Amino acid sequence: MKSFxxxxxxxxxxxxxxxxxxxxFLAGGMTLLPAIKLRLAAYSDLINIKxxxxxxxxxxxxxxxxxxxxxxxxxVAASKEVGKSIPSLAVLAEGIGDPQVRNRGTIGxxxxxxxxxxxxxxxxxxxxxxxxxxxxxxxxNKFFKGMFxxxxxxxxxxEAIEFEVPEKSSYAKFPNPxxxxxxxxxxVAKLKKEIRVAVTGVxxxxxxxxKLEDALSSNFAPSAIDNVNISSxxxxxxxxxxxxxxxxxIKVMAKQAVSSC
Length: 261
Ligand SMILES: Cc1cc2nc3c(=O)[nH]c(=O)nc-3n(C[C@H](O)[C@H](O)[C@H](O)COP(=O)(O)OP(=O)(O)OC[C@H]3O[C@@H](n4cnc5c(N)ncnc54)[C@H](O)[C@@H]3O)c2cc1C
Prior knowledge:
Layout: E1 5-8, H1 12-18, E2 23-26, H2 32-37, E3 45-48, E4 58-60, E5 64-68, H3 73-78, H4 80-85, H5 87-94, H6 99-104, H7 107-113, H8 120-126, E6 130-133, E7 137-139, H9 140-143, E8 144-146, E9 149-150, E10 158-164, E11 168-175, E12 182-190, E13 195-200, E14 207-208, H10 210-218, H11 243-259
Parallel strand pairs: 1-3, 2-3
Antiparallel strand pairs: 4-5, 5-10, 6-7, 6-10, 8-9, 11-12, 12-13, 13-14
């Protein structure tokens, strides 16, 4: 039976207190509800976190951009602050799913879910993000652990994601034409101290591509990517793309991203 108790939390303390072994947080419901409907997941309690004040919203400073966990993709896409400080992030948000998904789905839900083809995890890795939770601050490179797996512990709530404001950045996605999930997505960021390239859609979870980072650190130009050899070993292969095709598309997307930086 698909039955559960629906609870609404009004603050973070209340939400984390409600979270027991068989309870889970409900944000936009864009992944959680289909998973329950398809009987891929079952919970005793769903804790609605959308009514918690202060969990959504966007704050910008000269060095960082902080986005509250329940901020929707549509809000990120339309935000003047995001458009000014990290325009590539607004482009990424605008390219997620369809208007319904963008108006319900949240940034916190997206990274907590850590779908292998989700867009935001690549932004988190490339933009050296810090994940602020109800318990601690987690650097993005320690957050994404495996397929649909993160470093979050039971009952730990994401409060906000803080991105480093880069000198330049761009996200290029080769989308699945039906869902818009990334068959391959490449986020390139020129940060103050380093160049980061994060790839999504290709392995069990998002990863940084050191070969591309090294090539772009010597010469930040699309031509620097030409001689990089990307091995397809361990890459996803499915009805949408073979592993070799994904390896090829990584370079195409990386060049596109660098060209539009
Ligand atoms: C048709 C369709 C197309 C899509 N296309 C894309 C796409 O192109 N690109 C893309 O990246 N994504 C895509 N998505 C996913 C979508 O972007 C949602 O962001 C994502 O499904 C989860 O966000 P949500 O707010 O709906 O989370 P929910 O479904 O409510 O929750 C997902 C999981 O995260 C947990 N969670 C939620 N919020 C928190 C929090 N603050 N702290 C801790 N845990 C939390 C929940 O307990 C649950 O386990 C698509 C989804 C659909 C249905």
